[in-house]
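Q: I'm building a small set of examples for a reading group on sequence design. Run inverse folding on the following structure and report the sequence directly after it, with nothing in between.
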């Protein structure tokens, strides 16, 4: 199965319908966050982004922040991941008042585990995974330049999941 993103097909290790691989990474406050702890409790919006403090990544993080209450009301947790250090994430989250965890994947092990592609082989990809309460990947959206579109796509899928659960 492949995922459509505009006219691009994204082939990664993790596909829609797969069980999301579990992992544990440190957050900006130094606490370990394990994906598995959300199982049965919340849907998860897991987004991989290239780097802290770049214009597009800041816009994306702030868009998630600005819609955070909507995500919470939809019963979803938002989690950001990139290869930045805990200290970098701490500064980025504090500066932009981010209410959700940013996880430090310094050796890119989780990025590789999920199969998040690099653009031009250099720039880490911008990919969002919507994972349901059972731990199944329900949607994957990849767009390096349309950072704010990730929020729109995530909310659309969460609304569908809410109707399925009702």
């Amino acid at each position: 199965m492949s995922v459509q993103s505009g006219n691009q097909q994204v082939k990664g290790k993790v596909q829609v319908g797969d069980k999301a691989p579990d992992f544990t990474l440190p957050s900006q406050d130094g606490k370990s966050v394990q994906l598995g702890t959300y199982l049965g409790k919340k849907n998860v919006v897991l987004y991989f982004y290239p780097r802290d403090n770049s214009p597009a990544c800041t816009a994306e993080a702030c868009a998630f922040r600005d819609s955070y209450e909507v995500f919470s009301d939809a019963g979803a947790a938002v989690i950001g991941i990139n290869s930045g250090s805990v200290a970098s994430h701490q500064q980025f989250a504090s500066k932009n008042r981010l209410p959700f965890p940013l996880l430090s994947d310094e050796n890119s092990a989780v990025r590789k585990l999920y199969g998040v592609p690099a653009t031009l082989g250099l720039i880490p990809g911008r990919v969002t995974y919507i994972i349901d309460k059972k731990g199944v990947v329900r949607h994957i959206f990849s767009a390096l330049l349309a950072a704010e579109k990730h929020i729109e796509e995530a909310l659309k899928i969460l609304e569908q999941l809410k109707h399925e659960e009702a």
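The first helix runs from residue 55 to 66.
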